[in-house]
Prior knowledge:
By secondary structure, the chain is of the alpha+beta class. The protein has helices at about 1-15, 35-45, 50-60, 75-90, 160, 185-190, 195-210, 215-220, 225-240, 260-330, 335-350, 370-375, 415-425, and strands at about 95-100, 100-110, 110-115, 120, 130-135, 140-145, 160-165, 170-180, 245-255. The termini are far apart.
Amino acid sequence: MILSGLVGIFMSTNDPQWGNNGGGRRPPNPPDFDELWNDLKDWLGFPSGDKGKEKRRNSGNGAGGGKEDAPRVDPRLLISIVIGLALVVWAASGIYIVDASQRGLVLRFGRHVETTQPGLQWRLPYPFATHEIVNVSEVRSLTIGYRGDARNKNNKELKESLMLTSDENIIDVQFAVQYRIKDAVFYQFKNRDPAAAVMQVAETAVREVVGKRTMDVVINEERTAVTERVSQLMQEILDRYETGIEISKVTMQNAQPPEQVQAAFEDAVKAVQDKTRQENEGQAYYNDKVPKAEGQAAVILEEARAYKERMIETATGDASRFSQILAEYAKAPAVTRQRLYLETLQQVYANTSKVMVDAKGQGNLLYLPLDQLMQTGAGGTLARGANGGAPGSASSSSQRPEETTRSPAAGSGVTRGELSREREAR
């Protein structure tokens, strides 16, 4: 009804035949909006003034009496139109758009009731409901120990970067932390200032991790392990506080002693490097010598074991042989004793280079080829001769032979029994 009344008013105003004096019936006069407004005020009970009343009377009884009166609009219809338009605008105020990287949080009377996804969304208009947009894809960052460029000494924040290590040294540590929002509700409503909370948690985690390690470990040995532990500890604390924040990356920008002791620390680092180098050289020398010594020791041990086995076997054989000789000695003691005596002399003379000559004879001249006796390895040779005779020839049957023993280098000598048998044969 309201829309049909508005359409009728505007169509009558825009009629192309309006004011045409030609043939046909002239359309009615368009409504006077000032008059409508005054009628509305009269209907509502507000005074519109004498001038307005007079004007309305003159417009009805004026000289243009031939004109038809303008149509009167019901003020209630006008109010309905205005209220309808206001309701449409008020309802349209609840429309909002959420981007792909955002999430919408709908609040009804100040309490969260819904989290909306990307797209065109609608909620109850104000004051029944409101909405807040949170960017959950943006990677935020903060720095600890510096602001801006970490290489600029003027950008340092010493109150944040100076920390105490477990060996009671002071170290200057600078960190950069990157994080993003993983829970928009917790991020928006559980913490008053999430960025400040992340800053405080990061500083706390860094101080705890650095305080449990020595200076050398933090600066040189375990930089990666320190950053990983800081990231893990920060995430645990933030989850405990329900901040809705996820740590993406923690980077150690710089870790060094304070400037006042930088020179002394560099000397200490050089000393540590020299120590490491010497330890490596010693280890290399150890790796070269010890395996060789162990190999030589193993060879000596094997030789000792072989000698032990040989001695045991030899002793066992000697004991067995002694037992056998003892049995023979019990049967014939004199013969066995003489045999043992002769074998012992043979063994003794076999280990000497001396030649024994019996000089009790009548002075027979013996020719002994000692050089040949020392070189030959065959049986013994008895040389006899007289007046420069050849070896092995006798000068006279009346001459007495001489007893000769061969050099041990020649193998074996002539025994006394052989000499005596030879004399009896002659």
